[in-house]
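Example 5.3 — AraC family transcriptional regulator
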Amino acid sequence: MPKKGQQIPVNVMADEPGEGIAIEKIAFANIEDIIPAALEAVKLAHRHDRHSFFLLANGKVDIEIDFEAYIMGAPALIYIHPDQVHRTTAFEDVVVWSLGMDNENLRPEYLALLQSISPAKPLSLDADTYSVLTEALSLCLKLVGRKTDRLHHALLRDSCNAAAALFISQYAALATTADKLSRHEGINKAFRELLEKNYRTEKRPAWYADSLNISTPYLNECVKVATGQPVSYHIQQRVILEAKRLLYHSTNSVKQIAAHLGYDDYPYFTRLFAKVTGTTAIAFRSKNLG
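Solution (predicted structure tokens):
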């Protein structure tokens, strides 16, 4: 197993200085074809420094995202949020398009949509959709090399936003559209977006209710109708997911992880972890590291 550090690694996607956009098309017969330094980066669980969009044009990829294993077969796509921890475990005869964009280059409305669809799973594509995505990404790749064009960055940014929108549209097609959301679903969506930004510092349902200008009982009602679980459940689950990530992917002590997640009371955190997962933090780390 690749060695771990104090923190989960963040892989920087290669781009031109100041661009905030990276796009490439790569091909490998199998995972052993990658040079050793790059192979370690791929196989070691990591985050990316930006929003990542992958279009699998050929072959098969085994990928693990936040403890969930997926097998992707071409043609397929996947969006990975910067917060998600992932690693590639195997692939065969792969040709893949990779697009990375930071927050500054993505349109605000797309950022909001990406937040709502995360965590996303791989999606298989029909031939027509795959063709359109390939054409969009091909244009982006061509524009990368046209650095002497007037408005070069604007052209690149807008074309990449169009490609990102095509990815987003595939996920949106599976979900209830915003104008059809019930009141309960809308409030649950707003709560989940707040939770993603504040789970480390805010653990009280009342704080989320106040932020949404509604009462705590009503927030609980909406979230429970939409998901089957109360607000406190989702807060605990989000905290524990991050704890699992750090236990598995870093060498931080349980006490350090508790502090990172906003728990000054270390014994309380250990009891919470055991209550939610059915095992202790130490046992979870030992079991998963084999």
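Remark. The chain has a mean pLDDT of 84.
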